[in-house]
């Protein structure tokens, strides 16, 4: 669990604390209502194949929230969402890329609403999270999790 709840994205950028990826997998999804569940399954299956199931529930939750945000707010109609899983020596990073404009921010939802808690959950569960703008349209929203050097069985 993180030691703090940032109001804004964390500062652990790709070039900080991330050595070259030991493993990585990427999958492209059409913008559909089923995309968050499919992305969650893709990430869980990938991590299981790699023997990296520690914190799997936290990682699945963050994947689902990031993919949901991409579908609802990021990817344009008929667009696509790219999900990437990167395993580094001490950090596991989940990225969700979409073609939408804007920068997602963590918000304090009203108690009367059923939505608006996605990045609040991500910031509470992930060790780090952030947003990176693409050179062209779109962005990458990511969550990172520290892991042990030894894979789980």
UniProtKB/TrEMBL annotation:
Keyword hit for Heme: no
Ranges where the record places region Disordered: 96-116
Gene3D superfamilies: Histidine kinase-like ATPase, C-terminal domain
Origin superkingdom: Bacteria
Bias (Basic and acidic residues): 107-116
GO MF term set: protein serine/threonine kinase activity
Pfam families in UniProt: HATPase_c_2
Histidine kinase/HSP90-like ATPase domain residues: 38-143
Record keywords: Kinase, Serine/threonine-protein kinase, Transferase
Protein name: Histidine kinase/HSP90-like ATPase domain-containing protein
